[in-house]
Amino acid sequence: MSNIVAIVGRPNVGKSTLYNRLTESRKAIVDDFSGVTRDRHYGLAEWLNHNFTVIDTGGYVANSDDVFEAAIREQVDIAIEEATVVLFVVDVTTGITDLDDEIASRLRKSKKPVFVVVNKLDNNNQVADAMVFYSLGLGEIFTISSMTGSGTGELLDEVVKHFEDEDPEENTRPKYAIVGRPNVGKSSIINALLGKDRNIVTPIAGTTRDSIHIHYNQYGHDFMLVDTAGLRKKTKVKENIEFYSVMRTIKALEEADVVILMIDAVEGFESQDISIFHLAEKNKKGIVIVVNKWDLIEKNSKTIKVFEEQIRDKIAPFTDVPIVFTSVTEKQRVLKVIDVANQVYENRARKIPTSKLNEVMLPIIENYPPPAIKGKYVKIKYITQIAGTSPMFAFFCNLPQYVKEPYYRFIENKLREHFDFSGAPVQVWFRQK
Ligand code: GDP
Ligand code: GDP
């Protein structure tokens, strides 16, 4: 499922408009994350039952002119390396520019699938103008209007054909990814965990996706670490450090069962952290938040509580997530992080027997049924957990369409109160019966 679609191209061709269009279908599910939508350049999209991550490289462009073209060139190279599919967006109203040509020549060397997306075809008269883009030498062209959405369906039909399947022989050990912004302490915690005795470690270069999986087997723990920190690549353009790190983060995140999101206690929990959190949540990964460099904070008896509340405010409504305060340099609570990740792994895999579910939940529902709408009453008959990698519950009832969002929350909270799903996203469905 680790499929990434990267949108590349020079400025103003419509990359971010396309990005918005591809990711918007997901908005149907509660997507009211206050204050973070503004600067998000990567998100989940869905087409024909494929979930994939879309990244808009345009969000990472430098401000000053001289580094700007170099930055774009390098982003194209990174996109080729890291993405499953590259969408090269060009603009029918301007034709081919020098920068388009240059991007195309880099893309021609790519072994990854590249799609030429001719944008801004708002009406059929422009079809003839689009033909010139065949001369880019990248094969078939796809004509779309990001503004109206026309043509994007045909494009996605082709794109998903190039997706990689989940590796069937993949290791069955839990996989944990330590992610976070640069400098929060990811390398330090990995080194602390692995210690000096590197014999216990077997780095297995990821087969198809070239990420590093480290096998950790010590003190009764047996899991794989999906490493992003160790793979920091040199980049010539400083602005691309963030782009590169986001790319790696998304990949590691998609491969992991549990995401260990590390933040710097001094810097706090910021919009980028919130974006990573929501990406993990939408991907239905287990989540542990680690507040590192706790040694640098002046503390009193309330400090932890205040910190926790601030973070929970920012990650609402999914607040049932463990938060661990560490100092890697002082060796404080490093192993606790792993204990908690194991716990979250178990919570995410937890299966509740149908009888137990009904025994616990039906009386709760009886006492507090969904509010009647237009005189119609929703009757919930029974509940069952749906098979899957994360907890999902189906509530069978007569009128599922009358159950509104607040009741979903109520049910989720009750499930969390009675069963331990800490750190695991829980999905609730009401189904016709
Ligand atoms: P980016 O810099 O490549 O991310 O480009 P933007 O998505 O910001 O779009 C640049 C401009 O082109 C904006 O004014 C968009 O409204 C416009 N635009 C994007 N897609 C279309 C389209 O399909 N048709 C038309 N007519 N304009 C578009
Ligand atoms: P990464 O970029 O996330 O891999 O971060 P690093 O592990 O390279 O750490 C960045 C810097 O933070 C290094 O100088 C570390 O020594 C320092 N650092 C890491 N953990 C802690 C901590 O718990 N406390 C303090 N004071 N510094 C830390």
From TrEMBL:
Belongs to the TRAFAC class TrmE-Era-EngA-EngB-Septin-like GTPase superfamily. EngA (Der) GTPase family. It comes from the Bacteria. Keywords: GTP-binding, Nucleotide-binding, Repeat, Ribosome biogenesis. GTP 1 binds at residues 9-16, 56-60, 119-122. This is GTPase Der. The keyword Repeat applies. GO terms for molecular function: GTP binding; ribosome binding. GO terms for biological process: ribosome biogenesis. SUPFAM superfamilies: P-loop containing nucleoside triphosphate hydrolases. GTPase that plays an essential role in the late steps of ribosome biogenesis. Associates with the 50S ribosomal subunit. PROSITE patterns: G_ENGA. Gene3D superfamilies: 3.30.300.20, P-loop containing nucleotide triphosphate hydrolases (3.40.50.300). The lineage of its organism: Bacteria, Pseudomonadati, Bacteroidota, Sphingobacteriia, Sphingobacteriales.
